[in-house]
Every structure is written in structure tokens, then in C-alpha cells.
## 1
Amino acid sequence: MKRVILTGDRPTGKLHLGHYVGSLKERVRLQNEGNYDEMYIMIADAQALTDNYGNVQKVKDNIIEVALDYIASGLDPNKVTIFIQSEISELTEFTFYYMNLVTLARLKRNPTVKEELKQKSFANDIQVGFLTYPISQAADITAFNATIVPVGDDQLPMIEQTREIVRSFNNLYGETLLEPKAVLSDNEACQRLPGIDGKAKMSKSLGNCIYLSDEPEEIRKKVMSMYTDPNHLRVEDPGNVKNNPVFIYLEAFCKDEHFVKYLPEYKNLDELKAHYKRGGLGDVKVKKFLNNILQEVLEPVRNKRKELEQNKEKIMEILFKGSDKARKVANENLKRLKKAMGIEYRNYCNN
Ligand code: ATP
Ligand code: MG
């Protein structure tokens, strides 16, 4: 069986540290290991429109921003296919047929969708498009026969929904589709990076992000303003490292060599945590350490991004070339899907 990887991001803003550790880093690792046949990275503009249909310009403007973030982070268009979702009209056709396989009750049970609805205060008036976006994600994955999907943990319900659709389809129309698997980072802190405000998830919609393109001073300011343990008022107070985003970010980013370089009085994160827990270690010192690490991680990405920004036409060319390739694959698979369903009327009289 071919090893096909697919992931994507909504062009609702620039990419942030949550994307980086939750999915982007994993994609670059998989790309560089090279143990795959095809890898697709989708800029999910059509999905972004399900809750931004009134602000098409925002979605449009962010397509290039996301593409810049991808390539600056190490995705190589010569090795992976980067494409724009709405360029592949076949995907809406897949979605339409899959809609028959999912009940309204099932869609409403999706915990990520529930959470997002609460956040967006849609109240009782939910657009059908938004509610059905998990079905369109099943289309995105299966249209490319993808079986490996590197994501953050908020996407697990979507992958489960896709697996259910695949099983229903295969039961009804015969073995046609493959069940995908989510690939999470093995570092738990990376699976759902919290926001700088301490909210459970760093998310473009919540405005609690450190962006890959942030300038050094912005990064510093954001880190120094980060939410920590609210009960750790004085340096000598014992502190809590659980649910403390500063320590969660350190879990996600810090390596032992960072201690040698920036904080040599500790050997590793365990020692730093132990000191914080027993008291006597101030937040400012820990934040300064985190800032040094994040500056080191983000500097090369930001510099590469600035270089790429000089030639936006070239970036758009990459996206169109990727979209042309993706369309061919989705079209072939759509033919297979319709054949399995028995809706290929051109041969009607021969069957
Ligand atoms: P939006 O608020 O518009 O939904 P988002 O910040 O949630 O934006 P998406 O484009 O929905 O970003 O997510 C793209 C990918 O990045 C998904 O695989 C998602 O799981 C992952 N991801 C997003 N935020 C985080 C995070 N804070 N931690 C880990 N992974 C994340
Ligand atoms: Mg999201």
C-alpha cells in the first residue's frame, strides 16, 4: 500500500507556535525522512470560508501568508505538493456524496465543533456549511487516498469521523476507500499548545498566539506577558508547573543544550521545575530563558520568510502547480468513487 500523507491549515491568519509544534514540525520531519510515496499539504480556504464567508478577503490574503510560513519552516515544494483547496472542485463532489452517510446528530456530537461553536457564539443558528466541515475533511483526506494525517489533538474527532465515513462507504458500495490514521507528536505538550493567555489552545481565532513571523521584540513582549501560576505571587512561593503555559512551552521547545547556553546553573528541565515547585524561582527568570529559546527557534524561520516575501509570484506559482497536480489525483479518485457507487451513466447501455 502506498504511504500517502495529507494535512492542512485554514488560511485565517499567519501560522503560530501551536501549528509549528502540533503539525508543521512533524511534517518537515516526515518529509526529510522520505519514507512516503506522496505528501500533500492543503491550504483549506474553502473550509475557512465556512465561518469566514463574510470576510473572503481575509481568507484570500492569508493563503500566501500560510504558504510563506510553510516554506520558511522547511517544507520543500520539490518534495511535497502544496495546494489550495478551492482549486480542486472535485472535493465538493466527494463531500456531497459523503453527506448521505452522516446524521445530523453525529455532526452535533463532535466535541471540537461543539467547542468552536461555543467560542464563535453561533448560538442556535449554525450555518450548515460550518456544521458539515468535518465531512469535507473526510473528502480532503480520501480524495488523495491519504492514510497518514499529522495533526494537533483537536483534529482527532475529525479523523474519527473520516474513518466512520470510510467504513460506511465501503460497507455500502464495496471496498474503495482507505481508513486514515492521525499522527500526533509524541511530545504531549506539542499536541495542544496552550495560548499565551493560559487558554487551552493557542488559536488564531482566540488572538493568543506567538506567530512564526513575529519580530524579536514582539516575541519578547508576548513571552514576558505570559500567564503563569496565578498563586505564585512572590519569588519564594512554591509554584505550579502543571497548567502553566511557560513550563508547557519549555516542555515543547527546550533541550538540555539550551541550559548549557542560557541557564547553566540547571542541568535540565526537571531541575528547573523542581526549583519552581519548591519556591525561590521567579517567573521573570523562567520567561527570559523561554524567550532566549524561542528567539533561537524563530530567527531562521523569520529570516527565510523575509527572503521568500521578495518573490510572491513564485510562491503563487508553486501553489498553482501543486493544485494542478492535486486536481488530477482527486479526479482519478472521484471516478473510482462514482464507479463504486454505480453512478457512471456514460456506460449505462453497456451494463
Ligand atoms: P482557527 O482558529 O482558524 O481554527 P487554528 O489556530 O485552530 O485556526 P487550524 O488551521 O485550524 O489552526 O489548524 C491547523 C493544524 O494545526 C491542525 O492540525 C491543528 O490540530 C494544528 N493546531 C492548531 N493549533 C494548535 C495548537 N495550539 N497546538 C497544537 N496543534 C495545533
Ligand atoms: Mg482550528
## 2
Amino acid sequence: MERRNFVKSVGLAAAVAYVSPKVLGNDQGIVNSSGSESAPAPEFPALPFAYDALEPYIDARTMEIHYDKHHRAYFNNYVKAIKGTPLESMEVSDVFKSVSKQSDLIRNNGGGYYNHIFFWDSLRKGTAGPSPELSAALVKAFGSFDKFREAFSTSAKTRFGSGWAWLYMNDSKALAVGSTPNQDNTLMDISPIKGIPLLTIDVWEHAYYLKYQNRRPEYVDAFWNVVNWDEVNKRYQQAVKG
Ligand code: MN3
């Protein structure tokens, strides 16, 4: 399955895509007693770049462990947690809309599954910057691009403990920044900051400790060298339309 299709399955677009049961082995796609096939589990998404693609800002060893151990564990635990439940046929982004009614297992692992995909797609070296439309919206909300960057960075640097900082479009269609604890995100009904996410940074220690140790501010400052503005611009366009 193409990565593009997978991204749709976690709710960044409309369609749901599944890996064929054959690929996953014989415990998937089992025909139940009513004769209908249960939903096969989604496939763990490929990392959209090589482990060393973001060097020296984010090192290859960190990327490998972060993706292959941390992200994979959230994914596996989420798939296990929803197995045999009505959530199995739902996009994870739709599960977030009423995640307050779900277990912590689903909230934390669903968040970890989704947030990391969103984070990987937020990262790439060498993109040009915000589009004229996004730039105008950032200036409107924050006064200038530099003030936006400062607000986002401060949010990331000051999030106590583990979590994420976000640029998002709130319900009034204005851009805002803020942070969420643990694996929460702005799509969750339990989040005090709500809206369509546009850009994120993971500030869990596992995202930077090998290279930066306790120096989270250095990692946050380095992050700006690898923001995938092409993706952020695209998300902004979609958010404005939606
Ligand atoms: Mn992480």
C-alpha cells in the first residue's frame, strides 16, 4: 500500500485503506459467524524519509529508535486495544472526537499512533517556507513570522514533562499555538486547545535526548531547520477550505 493511502486511513483525508489480510497473516480478515469479514488491521506506516535525512538537526539513531520502537509500539498497542470493538472500523481521527469516553489505553496509544505520523510529515530539509497565504495568516495571528516562531518555540520549551507543541487553526478559523500533555492532540475532545493541527513538534525526551540530553531548547531551535513547509502549506489550504 502506498503511504499516501495510509495517511488517508488515519483521517488526514476521507478514505480508509487497509493492507490486505494476506500480508498480515492468518489472524486478520477472519470471516466471522455472520459471514462478513472483520476489518483487517491497518499497516504500520513507512517513515517518509531515511533515518539520517534530518542530520545534523535530528540524528539518525534517534530517528531509528523513535520510529521503529516508540512509534511502532503506539501503533501495535492501539491496534490491539481496538481489536474486536466498533473502533476498529473508525478512523483514529474520528475516535479522538469522543476520546473522553474511551480508555486511557486508547487515548494514549491512538494519540501516539497519529501524532507521530503527523510529526514525520511535518519534517523535511530544504523546503522554501510558508506560502503567501499562510504567511499572511501568521502575521495576522501573531504580528510577524518571528513572533509566531517565538510563541511556538516557547510553547514547546515550556511544556512541563512529555508532550507536543502545535500550530493549529481554531474553531474561529484563526491560527493559534499551544501544547498538549502526553499523546494528546488538538483533535481530542478532552483537549483544552482544539482545532485542526498544522504543525507539531514532539517534546518527549525520547525525541531528542541522545543528541541534546537535557537541552530541550537547543532541539526546539534546531527543529526550525527541518520544518516541512510544503506540508504545512498544504494542511493550511485544506483547513481553510474545510
Ligand atoms: Mn515521540
